[in-house]
Amino acid sequence: QSENSDKSSAESDSETEVEQVSVYHKLLATLKTSPESESEEEDDESESEEAGESEAEMDSEGSQETGEADGGEEDKNDVPEQEEATDAAEQTLGQEQADGADTSCDPSREVIEEFTDVKHESEFSLETNFMEEESGDCSADKRDSNSSRAFSEDPFKQHMDKELEEKEVEKMSTLPKTSSQSKWPRLGQLTFYSTLEKHKTLKADKEVDVKQLYLHKPLESTWPKVNKQYLSSVNKPSDPFFTPLQRELFCIMNTYRDLFYPERNALTNGEEIQHAYCLHALNHVLKANAQVLSNNAKRRDRKPGPDNDDYRDQGLTRPKVLMIVPFRECALRIVHIFISLLEVNEKRKIDVSNKKRFKGEFGFNPEEKPPNLKRPEDYEAVFAGNIDDHFRIGVAILQKSMRLYAPFYSSDIIIASPLGMRTVIGAEGEKKRDFDFLSSIEILIIDQADIYLMQNWEHVLHLMKHMNLLPLEPHGVDFSRVRMLNLNNWSKYYRQTLLFSALQDPQINSIFNKHCFNYTGQVAVRNVPFSGSISHVAVQLPHVFRRLEAENITSVIETRFQFFITKVLPEYRDAIMSHTLIYVPSYFDYVRLRNYFKKEDLNFTHICEYTKKGGVCRARRFFLKGEKQFLLLTERFHFYKRYVIKGIRNLIFYELPTYPHFYSEICNMMKATDNGADATWTCTVLYSKYDAQKLAAVVGIDRTAQMLQSKKDVHLFVTGEN
């Protein structure tokens, strides 16, 4: 804010100097004396080998839907070591990509050192470049500096120039957050969280004045063209910029509050959300870089004299925005959006270095997709294009040019998958690991967070633990240009986190609650489901929801297992209860159940994300013909393959599914049985009070409230017309 900046500039030089020296000493004490290393070699070769093995297992499907075995030697249908080493199996799960990802054009899997663009280093250096007069940025900067009011009202300036006090930081780290509710026309129910009391609840803008958005040039002119495809004729002529959803999301993003939006849908709103956060990220980077280039010119032209704080405009490292996305296709789309937003017209194309290489490594050949492959629409939308999940790429933007494959310490934006980050961050004790480039991230965007639950959530947690730490090496930084917030190690309080997911989940919520410290506060969309996915079940089926009582959340896993083997399984041991499918969301639970079934010598087969193609075919055939009474099926296998399992007569959900629509999808597989509707069909669901969110997504909020109060088993009968 202008008051704060005026106040700080009015302080005496001597006081500022003393403060700076003490902060410098603190910081320098943390730096290592070892030589700087910017190589991003991947030293996890054993993990890569395992990843390659399981990718081969789940490769292209061809005609597997026929249920015929591949022939050849007998497949044991599992990974032997998993019985003894379930921890190791879970750790490598994220990179074992059970979706048949295309890694043929990923050099990082084949060579030790990945490609980074060294050739354009000086051209994209922030330290040695100045504002170009003809770019329009220079005049914009002059206009801003002449109008102090306009300058101070820019959300970017307000957020980054705010000087926190020690007592405010202490307050944020010790006191609980206060919350308030608000209802917006498009987003619905919002909850605002803040520790600093003075921040009031934000109101939705019904119409957007583009000047109030403080978009940096050329975004004012390019955004309407780029976003035109999402604007329908229903949109008011007074708002030619945003869809109703984009307007409300950008309204929150532009205030630099953290945001959690759990209603992202790959089929409906995924791309318009992606465009909105790309606009915000690019706007932030252009403003930050313009400030640095402008100050370079001022420093060059200034008269000799003592340094002052006027030019503190940088972090300890250059990367400002980190974008976490699940697949290469997502990174490809983001880069294309950036290019479109930077190109004013056909004549003024921007120069993009390494574009051809990027298209080769992140693009996708449609001919590689297996023919006659029919999957649900949402599956097609999520797994479109190149679905390799191991990548990272640095992007540098300077005025009219973009540099792809920039070294991380010369990048403004890093686009990566959780696995791509995990392999460069490394683990404690590893010789080659690097996370200094995360020290000054100002915007963290985590898109499609729900997919990481299906990859390896540990990679996301590992990343969050390494965000905004003081760097171990200086990386050539000019400390006289570093903001005091970074020197004070307060950058986590300035970082904005944007979290987008297709669902509410306790693990995703914990990221938002435990790893977001933004001083401006947080906003979470908290709409409750009224109907639930059970209304989409198209077969006549009695649903029995069996409640298990656990003392606390840590004992749920053991309680569920004991409840299942003592109260549920005995009812299904009889040969009459054949064709029983047991749906298991957790891989740990799957391994435990599989081992128990083997020990008890039950007639069963099993399919998980590691099962080879031949094993899948045999298991499906045995189950369909009734040769195996039980089929254990993991949620991750269903997520990545979506096979229709035929022959189901009895269905047991060992736990409620992560994705609510999987419930109706699995139930509707009963239609695939030739006999048609059968009066003996059953569906049993195990749940506890700790499954409230998942339960509400399946049966609706009203039924959930009743079920949690009653503490009894609940019988629901769905007619197929609900």
From TrEMBL:
Residues 256-523 form the UTP25 NTP hydrolase-like domain. Belongs to the UTP25 family. Residues 533-717 form the UTP25 C-terminal domain. The gene is Diexf. Residues 1-159, 294-314 are annotated as: Disordered. It holds the Pfam family Utp25_C. Keywords: Developmental protein, Nucleus, Phosphoprotein. Its main location: nucleus. It is found in: Nucleus, Nucleolus. One of its GO terms (molecular function) is rRNA binding. This is U3 small nucleolar RNA-associated protein 25 homolog. The keyword Nucleus applies. InterPro entries: P-loop_NTPase, UTP25, UTP25_C, UTP25_NTPase-like. One of its GO terms (biological process) is maturation of SSU-rRNA from tricistronic rRNA transcript (SSU-rRNA, 5.8S rRNA, LSU-rRNA). The keyword Ribosomal protein does not apply. Residues 1-10, 107-123, 139-159, 303-314 have a biased composition (Basic and acidic residues). GO terms for cellular component: small-subunit processome.
